[in-house]
Amino acid sequence: MAEHRHPDLHTDMLIDGAPVPAAGRAVRATVDPATGGVIAEVPEATAADVDAAVAAAARAFGSDAWGGLLPAARARLLLRLADLLEADAEAFAALETTDQGQPLAVSAGFSVPNAVEHLRYYAGWVTKITGVTAPLSVPDVDYRTRREPLGVCALITPWNFPLMILVWKLAPALAAGNTVVVKPAEQTPLTTLRLAALVREAGFPDGVVNVVTGGPEVGRALVAHPDVAKVSFTGSTEVGREIAAGAGRDLKRVSLELGGKAPSIITADADIDAAVAGNLMGGLLNSGQVCAAYTRFYVDAARHDEFAEKLAAGAASMKLGHGLDGATRLGPLVSAEQRDRAEEYVRIGREEGAHLHDRAPLEDGDGYFVRPAVFSGVTDGMRIAREEIFGPVLSVLPYDDPDELAARANDSRYGLAAVIWSRDIGTANRLAARVRAGTVWINMPPMLDAAAAWGGMKDSGLGREMGWSAIEAFTQVKSIWTSLA
After folding, report:
1. Max Cα-Cα span within the chain
2. Which pLDDT score is estimated for 7?
3. Whether the Cβ atoms of residue 215 and residue 189 lie closer than 8 Å to each other
């Protein structure tokens, strides 16, 4: 396997403000999924590294350098980090594309700008985190609350949007005054490590932000550490259950953004061409490696064939290639394992009796590419309609009775997101109220904003990120009673 090094790489962990190189310890390779070539090797953290990182974060939390910092000064640090990231946006986007596979249109057009936006948004919250006063039925007492940081927070991030989802957690955690230990996904650590270098450049006190790299054992050690007050995790439902069980025993706070199987409801009166275009974007963004990807499409039986054929034709026309090629619409999946998983579901869909529309053949190469697979005539019980695939496999399901739509959309263990396409805004909003999902989009592809709460129902997770909800997630309320007698 050839080695393809990226210029100006940062591969050191960050513990207590100091870079920790791979020298003398085990390493793990990170690979360009479009070529199969090794980009770099990063350290495999030990239990001692995790202990050192948590200890550094605990010291920083209790220090005057961070804990005594005035809110306006903390806000300026976040704004400085946002400016540094924005100034380095081109390099971050290219690195995200090389390490994760997403096209530059996604990394440069969405992931990096969204991360910058989040840092600036939460910088604005720093000086506005307030408590309340309340009248009590106790004489001569003044009562008020303070909203205070939790302490050391473990931030465990996924491989599909490594930089962006890290900042979703990092920005509110720091805005609230916490300190953090970050564990990026082992497949895609490079933009996290580059951001760690900017954290130092921005002037954050030592130990406020720490980064340890490695596989699942590193994450488990971090979750189990007795000095970690909160775990914020984005990833699979199975791992989320394991984290929640441990956090429950240890009485740690936890936020979980987990799997999804988003339904897309296309009513009989919907603009089919607009729905096809929006669903292609929603279903195939980042080659379907999105928790909220539109993956099961409920279409009026009279329009089922038209929709499926247009969806398949649109998917087949999308150019596959290396994400650094500006013409690429679909990049590779993140790993050989993920590629094989997606192709296994294509095989399962055919065996279950769904109709697979024509797929253009793949060119020879070493990358982890999967041509989009559009199935029609899918039924609710098929595995391709029920299980999260995290790849470009789309299922079109016909319906006859509009009254059955909400129940069918809700017949899933997941509840992260849903979308409704209808010309009748009343119909769309009535359906939106009945669908059990944390986010419902109406007549639009998936959108996110720092001010809009994000999270799931059912097996899609616990808690919310973004907006004021994230400040609540990284703080706790203290009651203060003062005698006036």
Report:
1. 83
2. 53
3. no
* Sheet of 439-442, strand order: 355-356, 373-376, 393-399, 294-300, 262-266, 417-421, 439-442
Q: Which of the residues are catalytic?
A: 257
* Whether 231 contacts 243, CB under 8 Å: yes
| pLDDT, tens digit, 9 for 90 and up, residues 97-155 | 999 999 999 999 999 999 999 999 999 999 999 999 999 999 999 999 999 999 999 99
CATH class of the region 13-258+460-481: alpha beta
What residue segments make up the domains of the chain, in order of their start? 13-258+460-481, 262-450
Q: What is the rounded distance in angstroms from the CA atom of residue 181 to the CA atom of residue 16?
A: 10
The rounded distance, in Å, linking the Cα atoms of 295 and 312 is: 13
Question: Is pTM, for the whole model, over 0.90?
Answer: yes
Lowest-pLDDT range, 7-11, 33-37, 281-285, 294-298?
A: 7-11
Tokens 């087949």 belong to 316
**DSSP code for 454:** B
Q: Are 198 and 163 in contact (CB under 8 A)?
A: no
Residue 6 in this model has a pLDDT that exceeds 80: no
In angstroms, how far is CA 468 from the centroid of its own chain? 18
Amino acid sitting at position 313: A
Which residues, including other chains, have CB under 8 Å from residue 384's CB and lie 6 or more apart?
A: 345, 348, 349, 352, 354, 375, 378, 393, 395
- Strand stretches in 366-470, DSSP E: 373-376, 393-399, 414-415, 417-421, 439-442, 457-458, 461-462
- Overall fold of domain 262-450: Aldehyde Dehydrogenase; Chain A, domain 2 (3.40.309)
Write the Ramachandran bin of 214: left for phi over 0, alpha for psi from -120 to 50, otherwise beta.
left
Residue 464 near residue 438 (C-beta atoms within 8 A): yes
pLDDT at 120: 98
The band of 2, judged by pLDDT with boundaries at 50, 70 and 90, is: very low
Average pLDDT on 263-278 reads 97
